[in-house]
Specification:
Number of helices of chain B: 10
Order of helices and strands of chain A: HEHEHEHEHHEHEHEEEEHEEHEHEHH
CATH architecture of chain B: 3-Layer(aba) Sandwich
CATH class of chain B: Alpha Beta
Helix content of chain B: 40-55%
Strand content of chain A: 15-25%
Shape of chain B: globular
Largest sheet of chain B: 5 strands, parallel
CATH topology of chain B: Rossmann fold
Structural class of chain B: alpha/beta
Number of domains of chain B: 1
Order of helices and strands of chain B: HEHEHHEHEEEHHEHEHEH
Radius of gyration of chain B: 17 Å
Number of strands of chain B: 9
Distance between the termini of chain B: 23 Å
Helix content of chain A: 25-40%
Oligomer: heterodimer
CATH architecture of the largest domain in chain A: 3-Layer(aba) Sandwich
Number of helices of chain A: 13
Largest sheet of chain A: 7 strands, mixed
Chain lengths: 338, 281
């Protein structure tokens, strides 16, 4: 045994306990919240749509579909810890005319479920709605639970629509929209107390559409998921420094609203910053970069995203700051780039 | 039973003969392929399609049909052979098998072929898909069955067993799983590649109604499929069929390497002759 090896006691006796490395909230300080928008909206829609059924791979409580399960016990299928089987069975239920919402964590849906979603759902254009909880860096559990690569993984899958919603309002609107849409969808999902942001922006989710939430002359932040919440906060902070920040919210990452993105990025003189709760590889940042190259639009371009590495375990607030996706870190980065 | 308005009412032995002949026609186009499996499983498919299942080949999406899921996608050749015999596909189309723009791709896919209900090929999807369809049919209060054809090599796939657990948990007595146990897979004898026996004991322990039969004995197959449909316990059903690769063409039955067979033009001619000689008139 090497002398450099720490004894077990040395390794695990910090003076002060670190922050909880558990499932944490996605809510930043100062924002209103709404409880379990996904679960409640699904219950509401199911009242008039008999085809909706729910499934979970032992994570009903942690994806908010337990609310649906309690309201419609006979329309909810607990599939146990069998993500591959659940995804394939969801494809089977879709073949019989149902609209299954298959829930698990984003990391298990994407990494473990890929082949099954590809062959049993996407290739057959199955009307399955895949729900991925704990998107990106929203847990301090470490790489097993941190879904830093799900967007990249699912963007590569033909036929699949990929959505990263921002807040409770958008989750409600998105769930309704995907029920109306006949085809396979992957949705990132925020659970529990979910921030409520977009009601102040007269917002309406539309599948495949990016929406300008505020205009600005100096910086255009193109953001998805709850990073739009932060982009709006950053814009307010930077306004105090006389930096005028526009925010374009892009909830649907595939199919991407290339027209709006190219149009907004081509307005001269703005630094374009893409902000996402995802690795810099294969997510919205690279999707936007590709769009702009193809459209011959060449603005100054930066990415706010997670690094291409397996992230640490630890307290979420510290990790988000350390990896550059907190509001504070974003503000700092953008100031440095100007 | 297939409704009498399609095909003819020849005996099952004659059906099996024609399914085999259809398969040889397809394999001959390429000079090679999964012909040994197709010949081996022909009797199982004949009993499924011409004795056991309720289907309407002229109306492949008929809501009350029994579903058939080809999990082993490379058995497309066998499936097209029986679909043609049943009347889903015209015989002239057999020679397009595996060619560009054909509806009969080498690996079976639902978007290509009438009567193909799933895209298999990535082995291990059949039973999980059957669980989903079985649940859906129960929700609709349908009395249709879901048949799924798996291979013995497929018994090493984890999702097969995840699905076995769920099928029993949800009492999916509308699933009739079939294992074509021909004892050979891509890398060699299946029980050497990865031993999955004792399969009967395993599926019984998982809560299935299990039968194991000679998959080239039509009367045994008929009895097994009847039992599977009529069994009273609320359990998923499985029929493990021990089949002989190349069955019906003697020089293929005795071949050592038969997972993927290559023959020259003369040998294909001999295959028809060998098959014809065993035809029961």
């Amino acid at each position: 045994m090497s002398q450099l090896t720490k004894t077990k006691d040395e390794a695990v006796t910090p003076k002060k306990p670190a922050g909880p490395a558990i499932i944490a909230s996605s809510v930043d300080e100062g924002h209103r919240t709404q409880m379990a928008p996904f679960g409640h909206k699904l219950v509401e829609l199911a009242k008039t749509n008999e085809a909706i059924v729910g499934m979970s791979a032992d994570l009903a409580k942690y994806t908010d579909i337990h609310i649906f399960a309690e309201a419609y016990p006979d329309r909810f299928y607990q599939m146990g810890m069998s993500e591959q089987m659940m995804m394939t069975a969801a494809g089977g239920l879709a073949k019989e005319g149902f609209i299954p919402f298959a829930t698990t964590y984003a990391t298990f849906a994407s990494r473990r479920g890929y082949d099954f979603i590809s062959q049993a759902i996407a290739e057959q254009d199955g009307n399955v709605k895949i729900v991925g909880g704990l998107p990106g860096l929203t847990t301090g559990y470490g790489p097993s639970h941190q879904s830093t690569d799900d967007i990249a993984i699912f963007r590569a899958m033909p036929n699949l629509t990929v959505i990263d919603p921002c807040d409770a309002l958008e989750i409600e609107q998105m769930v309704e929209a995907v029920v109306d849409y006949d085809g396979p969808v992957y949705m990132r999902m925020l659970r529990g107390a979910v921030p409520l942001i977009l009601d102040e922006y007269d917002y309406q989710f539309e599948l495949g559409k990016a929406k300008m939430l505020r205009g600005g002359r100096d910086v255009l932040i193109i953001a998805t998921g709850f990073m739009t919440m932060r982009a709006l906060d950053v814009a307010k902070k930077l306004a105090a420094d006389s930096v005028d920040v526009a925010v374009l919210h892009v909830p649907t990452i595939k199919p991407l609203d290339e027209v709006t993105i190219a149009r907004e990025a081509s307005k001269s003189g703005r630094l374009v910053v893409v902000a996402e709760n995802h690795t810099s590889v294969g997510g919205l940042g690279e999707a936007v970069a590709g769009t702009l190259m193809r459209a011959s639009v060449f603005p100054a371009f930066r990415q706010i995203s997670l690094p291409d590495k397996f992230l640490n375990a630890g307290s979420l607030e510290l990790l988000q700051d350390q990896y550059g996706i907190s509001t504070r870190a974003m503000t700092r980065s953008i100031k440095n780039w100007l | 039973m297939t409704e009498p308005n399609i095909g003819d009412n020849s005996g099952l032995a004659e059906r099996s003969y024609r399914v085999r002949r259809n398969a040889i026609r397809m394999a001959e186009v390429h000079g090679q392929g999964y012909i040994a499996q197709a010949l081996g499983v022909a009797d199982v498919l004949s009993v499924a399609y011409f004795h056991s299942m309720q289907v309407r080949p002229i109306q492949p999406e008929w809501e009350e049909r029994d579903r058939f899921l080809l999990s082993v996608g490379h058995y497309g050749i066998a499936h097209y052979a029986v679909l043609t015999e049943a009347g889903y596909l015209p015989e002239e189309e057999l020679i397009t098998y595996g060619l560009d723009n054909s509806r009969l791709p080498m690996s079976g896919m639902t978007s290509y072929t009438p009567g193909a209900e799933m895209s298999g090929g990535s082995i291990g999807l059949g039973l999980p898909m059957a669980v989903g369809m079985g649940l859906g049919l129960k929700r609709k209060k349908s009395s249709s069955f879901v048949y799924t054809l798996m291979g013995d090599g497929e018994m090493a796939e984890g999702p097969t067993w995840e699905a076995a657990i769920a099928a029993a948990r949800y009492k999916l007595d509308n699933i009739i799983a079939i294992v074509d146990f021909n004892a050979i897979q891509a890398d060699g004898p299946s029980q050497t590649v990865m031993s999955t026996e004792p399969l009967v004991d395993k599926f019984e322990a998982f809560g299935f109604y299990v039968q194991r039969v000679d998959g080239n004995d039509l009367s045994k197959l008929i009895e097994a499929f009847d039992n599977a449909r009529e069994h009273s316990e609320p359990k998923p059903r499985i029929i493990i069929c021990d089949t002989k690769l190349g069955c019906g063409v003697n020089f293929l039955e005795n071949r050592e390497k038969s997972h993927f067979v290559r023959l020259d033009a003369e040998e294909w001619k001999q295959a028809y002759v060998a098959l014809e000689s065993g035809r029961k008139s």
